[in-house]
Amino acid sequence: MRFPSLLCLALMVAGSASAQCGGSFSEFVGGLKAEAVAKGHAPGKVDAFFRSAAQDPKVLKADRAQGVFQKPFTEFARRLISQSRLDRGKANAGKYDAVFDRIEAEYGVSRGVLLAFWAFETDYGAVQGDFNTLNALVTLAHDCRRPELFRPQIFAALTLYEHGDFDPATTTGAWAGEIGMVQMLPADILENGVDGDGDGHVRLKTSAPDALLSGGKMLAGLGWRKGEPWLQEVVLPAGFDWSLTGLQETRAVADWAALGVRARDGALAQGLTGSVIIPEGHKGPAFLAYPNFRVYFEWNQSFVYVLTAAYFATRLEGAPVFDARSPEAGLAGEQMKSLQQKLVARGHDVGAVDGILGQKTRDAVRVEQARLGLVVDGWPTPDLLARL
């Protein structure tokens, strides 16, 4: 009797289930089960998959407590990059040299890039998260902040379960549902999973070759340009026009060189385009971001995380420690929220008022700096806050 009732419910809700969130959690799970059957999954498998699904309040707490991303780049980078992580990165580069050779040949992604993700996401596989993945995904899909992101991941996890590569009761990972050594969501595993060790399965939690090759394939699919650089520290000349900095300004490398931009170590990559970024304003460090840098934002939306991961990748491949210089003091979390509130009151779209200096906030800061006759570098300071 269970199959007809589930199928009828599936047919009724299939058209609108994707928009559902909130309400009774048990009814929400019932809607997921109905949608799964409507998508063609066997009712028995669906029942077994969702049998242990439960709401996890710790997931919501973690989702709302990402204060680490409020830190400025230099502090964030110093916190994440240690000599131990550098040493272990270089050791893993040697240990999996053949795997990295294959990744570079097939996907064009340099080993430093994947080593940096591997380090930051799970400390080279040592800390992969202990949140039940199904519960995390269902909890976040039920929450109405970003259901459109997490609901499809539930059905991807169901497909992995049908393949024998996911256990709804025991598979664990990060609070946001990512699994394995380089933390990939179920849909990304389905699309980009690679059996790197030849055992017939894609096991990102226990197989470094599987995890690294899958990560390389995913980056290639996101638009990584084979064999090209992604980030380089630069030195800017006296009198530089700071309004030209930021990801919104892209120029040929030759044009940047003509303006006096030079590499701090080595030479600029000719024949490409790039953007000059100054994460802590005109008195702080400076980098040239090449086209591959933008692919990082498909992996993570945090500017400070992306820049730190990209920089660490260059360090793993021999770049020197960046020159932090002497940036002006920035804003602490509550100050940043106050700034964002003032910017919103002036008609700017800064996204969420969360105390995190994201791209929208930087863009609004630039507009206000220009209006007030300040240096237009996108770096909010206590002086700017006071003037607003």
UniProtKB/TrEMBL annotation:
Keyword annotations of the record: Signal
The Transglycosylase SLT domain, residue ranges: 25-313
This protein's record includes keyword rRNA-binding: no
Annotated ranges, domain Peptidoglycan binding-like: 333-388
Keyword Signal included in the entry's annotation: yes
InterPro entries attached to this UniProt entry: Lysozyme-like_dom_sf, MltB-like, MltB_2, Peptidoglycan-bd-like, PGBD-like_sf, PGBDSf, SLT_2
Top-level lineage group: Bacteria
Signal sequence coordinates: 1-19
Identification of the protein by name: Lytic murein transglycosylase
Organism: Seohaeicola nanhaiensis
